[in-house]
Amino acid sequence: MKLLLVEDQEELAVGIRNYFSKEGDVCEHAATVSKATEKLYAFSYDVLLLDLMLPDGDGLSLLGVVKENWPEMGVVIISAKNALNDKLFGLESGADDYLPKPFHLAELNARANAVFRRRKQEGKQSINFKEIMLNLDSYEAKVHEQTLELTKKEFELLHYFIINQNRLLTKQAIAEHLWGDYMDTMDSFDFVYQHIKNLRKKIMHAGGKDYLKTVYGAGYKMKDET
Fold first, then answer.
1. Pairing of strands 53-54, 47-50
2. What is the pLDDT of residues 53-93, one digit of tens each?
3. What separation in angstroms does the CA of 22 have from each of 15, 17, 26, 105, 175?
4. Dmax over Cα atoms in the chain, in whole Å?
5. Alpha helices in the chain (DSSP H)
6. End-to-end CA distance of the chain
7. Rounded Cα distance, 154 and 160, in Å
């Protein structure tokens, strides 16, 4: 799961980013409406964690931009404004959930994952592609009921391919989804090829077919044809 956190409290933002990172997710941060808008137009995200009171504007204005341009993105409002009217207005404006501050990070994680499942997997805790099964709660992957020994990044990569099956994914898009801001510190996208190579090998070793196709000069595609 790839998240964008829009929060101007630096200490809280660091804590949230570290928590999601330990959970194997990519969580990028923007402290202002303008910086968040810049990131939204440059990259793709699964879930937006949105504070309402920001230095350069109201988070609800950003929510409107998201609903207009990326309606498939999940949104969880996190705010110290806990009045019923604020909560109702946020939900009526298109947010999927509203979590008042202060909150436990485990609850924020649970809320974000629930929104992600509703948006991407229609609420399901597991998804299937041919003989491949992924359990999103336990981070378990199976091929023909045989468990695959995947790293967290390999699991996220397989999940990313499955929810985008038959769509061309460039190396840059894959790198941005799995590594987020840290991608800027890398010299090339060779690590993407290596992860795909390892993932393909593990799936085929368990008796699965090779659905990961290379589109030379463009990227990769998981095709459902046998």
1. unpaired
2. 899 988 888 999 999 999 889 999 998 766 556 667 767 77
3. 11, 9, 9, 12, 18
4. 55
5. 10-22, 33-42, 59-69, 84-92, 105-121, 152-163, 171-179, 190-205
6. 28
7. 10
The angle, 0 to 180 degrees and rounded to 10, between the axes of the packed helices 190-205 and 152-163 is: 90
CA dist 165 to 80, 142, 143, Å?
Answer: 39, 18, 17
Q: In this structure, are residues 37 and 69 in contact, taking their beta carbons and an 8 Å threshold?
A: no
The 3-state DSSP class for residue 208 equals coil
Tell me which amino acid residue 145 is.
Answer: E
**Structural domains of the chain, ranges and CATH numbers in brackets:** 2-121 (3.40.50.2300), 126-222 (1.10.10.10)
For residues 35 and 40, give the distance between their C-alpha atoms in angstroms, rounded to a whole number. 9
